[in-house]
Amino acid sequence: MTRTPTQTKRLNQSAILASVSVAAVLVLAKLWAFAQTGALSVAASLADSGVDLMIALGGLAAVTYAARPPDEDHAFGHTSAEDLAALGQSVFILISAGVIAAAAGVRLWLGHPAPLVSEGAGMAVMLLSIVLTGALVMYQARVAAQTGNRVVMADRLHYLADLIPNLGAILSLWASARFGLGQIDSVVALGAAAMLAVGALRIGGGAWHALMDRAADPAMIAGIARMTRSWPGVYGFHDLKTRTAGSVTFVNLHIELDGAQTLEQAHAIGAALRRAIRERYPNADVMIHKDIWRG
């Protein structure tokens, strides 16, 4: 089924709106669970859901803004908004991870963990979190398969990673209720904080490289080179340059053509190659320059 750009945009926005809704519900539920239990593992999961909400809101803004067509002030479009949002989100994640790790470290250092209470209520909320997260991940997987949107894909991967802290929080609450092992809560919180920090560095690093006009994946560059090298009517190519901005990869390429052919024939060769590259790499914005082959 072929979709118009407007339909694709709405489908992507629906996936991010679902993410915002789930994150908002989980933030409220986990805030209540933390107030009831005092568990740092729940606090870590709460912070993670708070990060999810920030990321989802940023993703919604980025998807909406990045979908705007190029204009006089932004000739290459607005897709860098996705990278700016991701960079800000990574800073927020790192701060959250540091606060959680510091609190967990203090509890472990003192050797007298704060007693946990209402473990059953906390486990019920974490179970709700797992169910809602699982449903959201399945829906986003379906949307990503239909649209190929990288923001939706990244959001889905982030929610998949959230399942581990949620399971860890249930484990720590169960261990406290069953065996009185309150220290497990701090250990789980440290592990969750480490996962948050690793994710933040990965997201921030990718956004930074994109803002610095980093080249595309070497496999993509090699694939474009192979296609161009074997394309009928192309005698050679040079100055293959790429850069990423959000979910779009910009490709600039010079091809060498027979100078004796008509302008219409030269244009047809370049247009066909451009279409082939875009079919293989749907998120590519391709510009092809035509030069005369000198032999």
Summarize the structure.
The protein has 295 residues and is mainly α.
Structural features, described:
- There is one protein chain.
- 71% of the residues lie in helices and 10% in strands.
- The protein is mainly α.
- The protein is elongated, with a radius of gyration of 24 Å.
- The chain has 2 domains: 5-211, Alpha-lytic protease prodomain-like; 218-292, Cation efflux protein, cytoplasmic domain (Alpha-Beta Plaits, 2-Layer Sandwich), CATH 3.30.70.
- The mean pLDDT is 78.
- Helix 2 (40-66) runs antiparallel to helix 3 (80-110) and helix 5 (150-179) packs antiparallel against helix 6.
SSE diagram, text form:
Layout: H1 5-37, H2 40-66, H3 80-110, H4 119-147, H5 150-179, H6 183-211, H7 218-229, E1 236-245, E2 248-257, H8 263-280, E3 284-292
Parallel strand pairs: 2-3
Antiparallel strand pairs: 1-2
Helix pairs in contact: 1-2, 1-4, 2-3, 2-5, 2-6, 3-6, 4-5, 5-6
**How many angstroms does the end-to-end distance come to?**
45 Å
Order of helices and strands: HHHHHHHEEHE
Taking all residues together, what is the mean pLDDT? 78
From the 3D structure, determine the CATH topology of the largest domain: Alpha-lytic protease prodomain-like
Percentage of residues in strands: 5-15%
Number of domains: 2
Number of helices, counting only DSSP H or I runs of 4 residues or more = 8
Low-confidence stretches: none
Strand order of the largest sheet: 1-2-3
Q: Helix- and strand-based class?
A: mainly alpha
Rounded to the nearest angstrom, the radius of gyration is 24 Å
Name of the top-level CATH class of the largest domain: Mainly Alpha
Number of strands: 3
Q: How can the largest sheet be summarized?
A: 3 strands, mixed
Q: In one word, what is the shape?
A: elongated
